[in-house]
Amino acid sequence: METTLSEIFSVFPTWAIVLVVILALFDWVMTLIAMWYAAGRRQLAWFICLAIFNTVGILPIIYLLLHRENKQ
Q1: Which pTM does this prediction carry?
Q2: Residues near 20 by Cβ (< 8 Å), separated by ≥ 6?
């Protein structure tokens, strides 16, 4: 017996699906921004770590906070 996609989604509430999509987009955007900065600053170790580890935006946020520029 095959399970259809609509049967799988009917098990989860709509808000849960929307939350997962929002978190996935947030993770993707934060990772791309952090990788952009790491590449621009020639920080190869950070770039590789950001490319490999998928941490729901935690590692990119840590990188961006640690390496932010003070604009004073």
Answers
A1: 0.64
A2: none
Determine what percent of the chain is predicted with pLDDT higher than 70.
88
C-alpha span between 16 and 60 (Å, rounded): 24
Amino acid at residue number 52: I
Amino acid found at 31: T
What is the SS3 assignment for 3-64?
CCHHHHHHHCCHHHHHHHHHHHHHHHHHHHHHHHHHHHCCCHHHHHHHHHCCCCCHHHHHHH
**14 near 30, Cβ under 8 Å?**
no
What are the tens digits of pLDDT across the range 29-44?
Answer: 888 898 999 999 999 9
